[in-house]
Amino acid sequence: MIVVSYYTDTYKKHADELAKSLRKLGYKCDFDHVGSRGSWKETTAIKPAFLRRKLDEHKTEDAILWIDADAVVHRKMEVIDRLEGVDIAVYRHLSTTPYHSKEWHNFGQCWNGTLYLRRSPFTIRVVEE
């Protein structure tokens, strides 16, 4: 597995810290600098195409793991290291905050700050769609 991410000028220092924390724990990483697309929403909207490209670039890896550039990893990611037979994994946060609609609250939120993508036809299809 290789950890991938991208960052804008504003997040370079954060991305450097993330890379340092990953390498210290023995993880490989591949981060790209991207120019701002004008807004946070537009810049984050390039993530699916970026992930698809990284799946192509890292064909020798069984999986890629996206981590937001402003994160830091403090210890081995044992849960992720043990994933077997899983194509896609995300963190699902069950929230009790009142601003969620009842339907959304019952489901919870899938946070995409960390995404595990195993190389498979299903994963490729999901990322492309």
Describe the structure.
The protein has one domain (2-128): Spore Coat Polysaccharide Biosynthesis Protein SpsA, Chain A. It is globular and about 35 Å long. The chain is built from 6 helices and 5 strands; from the N terminus they run E-H-E-H-H-E-H-E-H-E-H. It has helices at 12-24, 40-44, 47-57, 78-81, 102-107, 121-128, and strands at residues 2-7, 28-33, 63-67, 88-93, 109-118. Helix 1 links the parallel strand 1 and strand 2 (28-33). A 5-stranded mixed beta sheet has the order 2-1-3-5-4, sandwiched between helices. By secondary structure, the chain is α/β, with parallel strands linked by helices.
CATH class category: Alpha Beta
* Global Rg: 15 Å
Relative helix content: 25-40%
Low-confidence stretches: none
Helix count from the secondary structure assignment: 6
How much is the average pLDDT? 88
The count of domains is 1
The coarse silhouette is: globular
Number of strands: 5
Strand order of the largest sheet: 2-1-3-5-4
SSE topology string: EHEHHEHEHEH
CATH superfamily: Spore Coat Polysaccharide Biosynthesis Protein SpsA, Chain A
The largest sheet is: 5 strands, mixed
- Tell me which CATH architecture applies here: Alpha-Beta Complex
User: At the third CATH level, what is the topology name?
Assistant: Spore Coat Polysaccharide Biosynthesis Protein SpsA, Chain A
State the end-to-end distance: 23 Å
Share of β-strand residues: 25-35%
Helix-and-strand structural type:
alpha/beta
